[in-house]
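WARN  no MSA supplied for this record, continuing single-sequence
INFO  ligand: zinc ion
INFO  echoing inputs
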Amino acid sequence: MTCVICKNKRMKRGTTVLPIERREAIVLVTDIPARICANCGEPYIDERTAKQVEALANEELNGRVSLRKSRTRRTVVVAEFA
Ligand SMILES: [Zn+2]
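INFO  complex generated
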């Protein structure tokens, strides 16, 4: 695959962090397996992983965040991708 940023074709394995925004809350999902551009460091996540990240974020928000409480201040939840 080719990097959309720098057109480099070499990717290395690594992990990345992705913020998922839902109303007033942000879930920061860490340690997501990704392919990282060897040249510029742009992370690429496959579709299946992206769906898992989304599911994890929804789970975290349902369990922990009171949207009523976070109306005035944003809540940030950090979740490690498993
Ligand atoms: Zn690149």
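The radius of gyration is 15 Å.
INFO  checksum written, moving to next record
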